[in-house]
Amino acid sequence: MTRRISEKEVEKFVESFYNYLKQEKGISEETASAHAHQIRFFALHYLIGYEEKSLLEVTGSDIEDYLGNWYIRKVFGSGRSDVRYILVAFKKFYKFLHERGNLEEEELNDILSACDNPQRYIRRFDAYMELDPESETWEGDFRNWFMGEYDEKEIEVNYKQPFELNAQISRAFSAGDLKLSNTSVLNNFRTFLNYISEHNSMKLTAANSFISRKHIFSLNKAMSSPEKFKSTANQPDSGTVHLFYNLSKTLNLFVVSAKNTLEITPRMDTFKLLSPKEQFVVLFDAMWNETSWVKFLPPDSGGRPEYVQEERMNIASALSECEVDEKYPFVEWIKEFCRERGNAEDELDIIMMATNFVYSVFDERIAPALKVFGLLDFEYKKDRDKYLVNRGRGIEWFTITQFGKKIFKTLMG
């Protein structure tokens, strides 16, 4: 019979665990406190408040439900970057209980097995974040997510299967148009692929499974137009590398292993065999249609990137009407775009709609990506404040290229 554990008992366990980490394991006070906090939160909010269990009654199934379901839905501000820190705390805590004789070997192994593959919980976070509450299929989509297996294996991918070419994008331009364009995407993406191939099995960051700072700076230096960012920059601070990382994941050119390493796949060789035009089509389709635009932003950015992405056909239509090489004030053009959409009742509504574009994924990530693809050009305001500089925002004006006009015309539908 399950016995309710008191908060006082929880605190005794947590304090004992904290002292064990500091005194016996030599872990810093800051790290020991962080691990202890994770166990306290788990015990008080999930075990006592939800499951009515004690810390000594936890099984692997409880870990899976907590991190693959309850924590995602119930904890405000939770994110995929929490996963690895929580699992490390669980492993240390239950090994501590085992050493103290409170846990049998078989019970410990069951819990450790549930902690072995962080990627399955990260996939659960990603899948939940992609659910759309405003969708007509919301209830069914949520039910499918909720009933999903926590220990699901990676979807089988046939890495030798040919890439599907988006016919709409492909007919928009010729190989000759591509040669005459100002795109830098193919050469720089090739540089990116060669680098991660040379550093295959590189260890990724614990928080988000991103490329580490050392490699980010090396990759940035190898690009045709290196970006300027501070010495503490992480992957999302490099718009180009972050873009290429996410496109590569969408195309299954590499996978993140259970050991949190980057592992290239045979699909990379298949991609390299494509013609330049085919590579461009595959990459642009992955950026414009296949990858959720929220992934191009730094984690926990907020805003409404999903709304902006839903408007991409209308965006393409409006951009196709721009004159080639004519400078358009970015903010004013966005306001006019929102006004012509016909959804705003007054100027305040227009400003609020425009904010979704000006201070969002479009200004920060999609416009720079379109520049990399050679579809447009732009310049930032010279008097941008530090925040806008750090976020890659503050476009003053933009122009459409001849190559971009051809593609945007086709994307109208």
TrEMBL record:
Entry-linked InterPro entries: CB, Integrase_recombinase_N, Integrase_SAM-like_N
GO molecular function per UniProt: DNA binding
Keywords: DNA-binding
An annotated GO BP: DNA integration
SUPFAM superfamilies the UniProt entry points to: lambda integrase-like, N-terminal domain (SSF47823)
Keyword Zinc-finger: no
Origin superkingdom: Archaea
Core-binding (CB) domain mapped to chain residues: 8-98
Signal peptide: none
UniProt-recorded name of the protein: Tyrosine recombinase XerC
Organism: Candidatus Methanophagaceae archaeon ANME-1 ERB6
